[in-house]
Amino acid sequence: xxxxxxxxxxxxxxxxxxxxxxxxxxxxxxxxxxxxxxxxxxxxxxxxxxxxxxxxxxxxxxxxxxxxxxxxxxxxxxxxxxxxxxxxxxxxxxxxxxxx
Length: 100
Known about the structure:
This protein is an alpha/beta fold.
C-alpha cells in the first residue's frame, strides 16, 4: 500500500484534497493511505511516507522535506486550488515512480 503524506501549515487546508484523493484512488484501484499533516510533523512521518506532497503555501519547505530521502514535490497550484484528487494522486504516483 502506498503511503502519501500531504504537508501544509497545520494539516487542515489539505484535508479536502485528502478526501478527493481517497475517492480517486478507490476509483483507480490504487491502494493508498493518504493523510494530511502540519509542517511541524514531517519528522514523525518520514519512516512511513512513500512520498510527500507539499501544499503551495509552504513550498519553501521543499528542500528540507526532500532532505529526508523520500520523494517529494509541491502540489501544482491548480490541482490544489480545485482539490483535484485525481491530479494530486497522479503527481504522487509519478514522484514515487521517479524516486524524486
